[in-house]
Structures
1.
Amino acid sequence: MLTALPTLDTARSRAVSAPRTTETRVQQALDTAGAERSLPTLPAVSELLSGAPLRGGAVYSVRGSSALVMAMMAGPSAEGAWCGVVGMPSFGAEAARALGVDLERLVLVPDPQHDWLSVVAALVDALTVVVVRPPGEVTSGEASRLSARLRTRGAMLIAVGSWPGSEARLEVQANTWSGLGAGEGHLTARQATIAVTGRGAAVRPRRHQLWLPALDGTIRSVDDGVVDDSTRWLQEAVG
Amino acid sequence: MTVTEQLKASGSTRQVGQRTMVVWVPDWPVLAAASVEGVSPSAALAVLQKGRVLASSAAARAEGVRRGLRARDAQSRCPDLLVLKYDPVVDARAFDPVISCLEALTPGIQVIRPGMCALKARGPSRYYGSEPAAAEKLLDRLETYDVPGGRVGVADGPFAAEQAARAASAQTRVRVIPPGGSAEFLAPLTIDTLERPELTDLLRRLGLRSLGAFARLPATEVLTRFGPDGAFAHRLARGDDDRAVVAREVPPELTRTLDFEPPVDRVDQVAFAVRTVAEELVGRLAALGLVCTTLRVEVGTESGRVHEREWLHPRWFAPGDVVDRVRWQLQGSGTATSELTSPVVRLRLVPERVDPVGAHVDTLWGSGPDERIHRALSRVQSMLGHGAVVTPVISGGRGYAERQTLIPWGDPLTPARPPSDPWPGSLPAPTSPPTPVPDDSFSGLSTQTAASLAAISPPVSSVPVLRTEHVIGGLQVFSPSSSESTAPSASRQESSATVSRRPRTTTPLPLPSTSGWPVPVPTLVYPSPRPAEVLAADGRQVTVSARGGLSGAPAAFRLLPGPQVADSNKLHPVTAWAGPWPVEERWWDEEAENRLARFQLVTADGRAWLAAVQNTHWWIEASYD
């Protein structure tokens, strides 16, 4: 009740004292202009998205790997963007730092209780990258309300799990860890097979091989990483 | 000395000391500490500073507790002695309202130290008829304010008045030295009352044991021998104290107090009442051109305890922020409508640190977060509570969970344990040299040789060679690791054999890192580790002996049922593993002792895990997701 007061105040003052002046129209134009901005992106991540950068205002859904989420956060974070992580109590901050996320501009809301949607909405207002693991199924109504807000603010949302109407769906299908034997060695590197599905059902998933991380700690794609499903049978038949 | 040096300088004009009244509350540190701790001052109490008794209550003194006694001696004299820690801030803070209550009677009070203050005697004595009458009036005022046992001394100058107050007995309470009688009164007192250890030590060795004996020395001789400071002490001893009482400047009253009558027992009711007071407080600060960056909230409950907490703000407190802080402090982990354990009778908002508005044009900590971010995060905080929005800071420690400290938004970013300290046995370990060593040269190889070998051989760049390196004490044991070799069991036996020859305090085996490259860090670190069962090929649980020997190679594990575990009881077959990396922490402290061994496991579905075992209990600490 008390906390709602300031927002009510501002809403009222806007309703009363803001006719459609040039100022508000300029503000609206600025708001929509921010929507389609592209965010700094790691080369490996941009390769996953077939060369496109991460877009502000879009939702990406990632399944099966927190490291991939961190890699997507790393690009904007390194360029000074603020990141927020909602609903992931076991988010490994040290790993995030190792993958290039600046911890000084990272905030965590480990337990958003039942109100995760309003927490995300509040964070989207100010932060550039928001990661959320929704506790249950997300309805398309919730998704569309949030995406309107994302577009106005130019923020990017990374959903861990499924999300209706996401810009791209990235799913880690297989992992190969190296460095560990039977009672010897230690984990050194991982090669992940990531399936990327674009918008719409017609788009065929593309598979990528990614070092996540490589032996030297970086994230990069494995050479001749892109294996298109359409040519895969050919390769298998020939090779 | 009790009064500042500036006062001394101002007394260059020769005149007879001003009539001064000193009000002294004996054992003030005890009274102050007792009121904060909520114990009765009539109990046997002692306040300690640096392990020695600084002040004690009358009951403790009756048992023989004296100032300067060590804590152990004091407790042996008085076994039921309650020992409190001395806090000069508490001392001064508690004395502040006492001064205010005296100022209601007469203005112009100078605080000499907590528990003692001076004022000019002329005004009050003329108003109340005589000096004793004025002194009685002040003492009565103190009594009504619940500060019993005060004494007053009146004399020429603050020094003599202070000694007069100390000389006043508990019955008469007031000691008045007539004008001009100070020298005579001071003469029999011991030289230690000057409170100058270096000077009095010297004077004592010269055979001057009383103030009178010191006062009889010629003033010029004292000045040439002891300097200006000695001359000043000499003037004090002669009863020629010409320092004037400098009244304290009454500070602007910023503290706001709320009294609840009848007591309130719901958080939202308190929060509602605080709102107007918070607005008033912030408005008053703004009128003075100040903003508050540190706020102390004191909550007095019906049970008589005062819960206080300091709140920092990354920028400055707006009225809404103040209300939030009060709410968070009251509700703890409860909800806004939950009942309090004890009804609130009193609430105090104390701006602990205020800054001029001009200092906050940009941000508090240099390139701090901008206003928009702060506002959004504060909104989430007011929805969920202060601790719900956190910033991670990397701190020191051996496990991954203890290496990240989560700090609520707005609090200073101090890691729980210093990350710069060496943490032997932590994962990943400080980088050790690479290990491309020929297979036939593995036993008895010194570290130096390994390092030199490493320097000449190129780092492994493609698929890493699987190799074990165990550092035990100073001895390194390398085991070859071709796929057909029987290395795992052999190396295990070898290292356990090596361990068995060594004393119990072996260095933990560090997780080696390949040639300075970073070791992958788990991306999911479970705040509370998940209990698990790790099974060997024969279906029995794997155990680790005290010397680091394994009962069998891990073949599979399953997570035990828990609230957060979705796929409990599903058996994960282990395809690769390494360990144990033992950690033995704080073995010298029985309660904090922690002995465990860590393992890395890769399961058939391609996931990697960090497991730990302690006393046959396994759990999964983190996962490389």
2.
Amino acid sequence: MTLTSLTFFAFVLAVLIVYYLIPKRLRWLVLLAASLVFYGLLALKSLPFILFTALSTWAGALWLGQVTRKRTQIWNEQKSGWDPAARKAYKKQTQKMKRRILALILVLNFGILAVLKYYDFVVEQINRNAGGHLSFLGILLPLGISFYTFQSMGYLIDIYGEKMPPESNPLRYLLYVTFFPQIIQGPIADYQKLAPQLYEGQDLRYENLKYGFQLILWGLFKKMVIADRLAVSLQSLLPVKDEISNAWQLLILLIYCAQLYCDFSGGIDVVRGVGGMLGIEMAVNFKRPFFSKGLAEFWQRWHISLCAWLRTYLLYPIAVSKPFLRFGNRIIEKSRSEQELPEDSLWGGFTFIQHLGRVLPGAIATLITFLIIGIWHGASWQYAGYGVWNGVILFFSMLLAPVFQWLIRRLHIQTESTGWKVWQILRTAVIVGLSFTFDIADGLMDALRMIGKCFTPVLGPTTHLGTAVDTGLAGADWGVVIAGLLIVFAVSLYQELTGRKVRESLNADSAWVSWVLTLGCLIAVVIFGMYGPGVASGEFVYMQF
Amino acid sequence: MKKKHWIKIAIFAALTALILLFASSLLCVANEKDAVGLYGFFLEPEDSIDVVLIGSSSIYTGFYSPLAYEQQGFTSYALSTSTMTAPLYRYAAELAIEKQHPQLLIFETWSFTYEDQQDETSLRKFLDALPDSELKQRAIREIVPEELQTSFRNPFEKYHSSWDRFGELLQVMQDKLQMKRQGYSVTKNFGTTPFRQPYLQRTTDYEVSESGFYYLQVLLDYLKEAEIENVLFIRCPDMVQYVGTDSYKRMIEMIRDAGFDFVNLSAAVEDIGVDIGHDYYNTTHFNVFGAEKFTTFLADYMMKRYRLRTDHDPAVLEEWDQCASRNQQILGYLEELTEQDANGFLYTQRDFLEPAF
């Protein structure tokens, strides 16, 4: 039962009917039962893993909550009796206790993730480089482990940070962890935004059904009409990528960019659409990433929920951690005696050292975060390379930002002009596109070689087969892909320029046009979608992560 | 939700269903010729066909029913699709009996030599062209490989991607509509290619496959159980010289033991009067000249051997008279094209629909 299968939609329909038929206060139970059934049908063997994570996080959060409550209670009781030193000592003591609880649950859960995801990779490295003979675990990754682990740990850290009280009902918490539409590939949900919607029981509203249905169709269009077609082409092109010309290699990268975006964002649209039909608004995971004018902006528009998680729970804590702040301050201290510079100087009114002191902690934290993003994608050097590629580019762009500003001023570039914005968008797309080489290459060295090939002349000595390459798709299929991509581009451009969703605009302006387009989209998916015997539809690229 | 919202949803669902139904009937076509050919069978009035011929392409390229009617007065139809495999015979026979209760059933035996009796394409040419029925569902359950059964039950799953044949499929739909308006099929599923194949000497062992034996037995059991009296198994003539093998002899024995007839017409080319370098469009199929000779010979054989009754309702006779009245025009046209070795296209009843032809 994949997200694009008829079985899945029959399942969703059944859930919708039952959900809206039973009393509101019990509706969350329907979602829980549906989520467990869905997960069980998809990956029964993985069920113990997700149950363990849910249970351990729920218990850990409850424990943390108890410690916090007890501390508050004792504080209140001892309001006048304690001097500041005693109060501080007690706070330190409880903080220590809480840190231990947090560390225990984090280590347990991230430990499971790390062992299952990276153990075999580490063993392979040891066996290969140190002549070891360690045996592999050979266990298939539990379905959605990265997503539910991150989501659960985010909840736990929030409880630790006392942003909210813990959920006392284990079943309610289990629903938050296992909520069926998002379990396969996210988005990673913020507890405070998702959980209340899950628990309160939503009313049956026509707008929810309509918007949700339209979002599902749009997602299926991107996934089944475009991405799955391009996947067929990549299956033909990737095995011969070493034999084909540089131009074809660039084309492979373009195809992969389009496929990955349509696959992942399409899948997320289906997930959000199902949520929408249930009256539950789930986190937005994509905001037209290929309109980004810089790599940092790209990462605020691509896989938003993961990046937001990493920003909140990793990047900021590292950047504002005591060692990092001390490190930055020490550098700034060193250059304090130097004379002050004008605002429009090369380093933006600071000396180089002062600038370093200001941005280096954040830049190093960014580098670390992206290394982790890379490794999160998979246990291999090429994914580490993916992280390093992004991290290093962002590191230097942060470091050299004042220089770029200085150059822009010196060259009198109109940064508000369309030409400049288009240049920024294209530049970002190239950087992002090249980074995807790490995804499709056969290892780190192959990725670097592919990137190198992209920078050598198109008609260089590596041109073997020329135009005789089999793209795996017929001309008519390419017509569908190009038309589909143009539609996606037009919709994205409209949203980018107006800030409005096409669905909302259409529904507001003309309900009939909206219905006709919905019907058109449905027919397009049914006719042009890639499914049926011999078609490996339903597999999502991000399922593997 | 308000009542008007439910109405909107209902209208949308109904519209979607209608469009999908249309798309399904347009796109679910495995083979254009076979789809139209089998459609014609269902247009024939019940119990109006005297002889049903079942088999692969050598049947519908070799036997021209309206000519047999003109010469002998019995009605017939080629319930035949290209590369029709043996498992389909039993269901084709059941269909023929259910709809027509024919006086004689004829089966072409070359299909029993196929190694892959469950070839998807071959099964689809026949099964996907049938309207939905209990028989079709049973056939899918019993002879289609399990992993393909879902897509046979719901052929749209496979054929939705046929949109790239839109023009041809629209033509199929038009042809069917035109045939429906006309009320019958003019050429009764006959098809030929206007070309004269020069003689090529080829010798092949007539080796019946193990699965061929299995499906032959299934067919014989069914025919006996259905108490069908007149059944003739034939091997249509072609350019190939067949070497009889033990399995060939075993096949004939099985057929005769079951009380049915077998005739190897491949050995009767001289009696039929076949001009080898002139009467075939390729090594295994007659062109229109060969088909005329073969039809004349086989119709005569059937009439003499089975003493077929030719009495029918006036309406049926009127239909067949109309078909026969066009024999000269259609066969003449095809002969002319064949003499010119016009081209390699298969001419079928679609090409002779009025008023287009």
